[in-house]
Give the backbone structure.
Amino acid sequence: MFKDLLKDVISIKSVSTDERFKDEIKKAAEWFGERFKDKGFEVKIFTEYGNPIVWSRYIVDESLPTCLIYGHYDVQPADLKDGWQSDPFTLTERDGRIYARGAVDNKGQIVAVVSAIFELISSGNLGYNVVFIVEGEEEVGSVGMEKFIRENKDLLKADFAYLSDGEMLPDLQPVIEAGFRGGFNAEVILKTADVDVHSGIYGTGVPNAIYEMSKLISSLYDDENRITIPHFYDDVDEITDDILENNKNISFSYEEYVKNTGAKKVLTEPGYDFYTQTGLRPSVQISGISGGYEGEGFKNIIPHMAVCKVNFRLVKSQNPQKIAKLFEGYIKSAVPDYVDVEVKIFDPYEGVKLDLSSDYVKKAFDVLEKVYTKKPVYKFCGGGLPIVTFFSEILNLPTLSIPLANEDCRMHAVDENFDLRYAEKGLEFCSQFFKK
């Protein structure tokens, strides 16, 4: 069932970052709605919060606990010309892996959960009432989800929440995610003149916007990989010795890191391991920079404008609105007075730390250990999932986040893939966890 369902939904080009795929977005939501209806679920599709949100509910027995299960059907852009070995919207199997855009993020993982639930319904062995919400804007920040959750609490009543939307560790090492960073995106626009000018006639006489931008962004970090924005670290959570010890004991392979990224160095602040740095320390990353002439050949100009896109990842106690103001203040104070600057802030959301003491986490730990024959590790995830914050702060639900994908899945990149060994174990875990 898993491969058949996944093949169908992969073929729908539900790219949320591009308005040209609006019809495909609608089609993906309808596909999930129809699959749930086929199994006897009550289904509603909400369209007033942005891209359609699919809500569905299946009641086994009112006396049983209810699990709220989350997933998303939207995906990142993909095109064969980007370097894919096969059509990114055709599920392709080779060398023990399935390749496609959305193979793990998130179609592959939510379909694994859905498939397991469907099988348990068919065999009469489902041990929980279940409510699904499958959204179409996760890749653009889940913009409408907070309002949807606040306005539909009655439909989302549950005893706990569950999601699978991340990566495990190498060698089928199971993971229970302990928290996620918050953050926001920003755009910085610098102007040094009204128009691009001749680089010969005006060279060294007119300020260059790209040069001014390069000076600005190079000042954001010091030589110890620390962010230089004043007061940036004021509210950062202290990392306890227990957590530091836990993270140091998580297996980290430099060889796998190089294989997966092509990078030649691991950057950390002094005293922190890789998983502490990426999961529990804040980050500011330049995600894009543009300006001047970018076409074929050369255009001998001095660019008058440069644009920089910046991604912030913040830890639990940092307030994203406060950090956004600190960033804007720093930028405006750091540029020379002959440079005009504009700072735009997009979609701030807070980080979250999960309660690892709930009975559902303990059950998941035991089932994971049984299925994978390895003790799970608790891991703080460097990525952000606004939905987990909403579940925690709006619905007050204990949330269980269990990634099913292989670490080298190439999420968001060309040749995104789901190792079938991981897929099969993931299906087994879901079946064992949700059964009576």
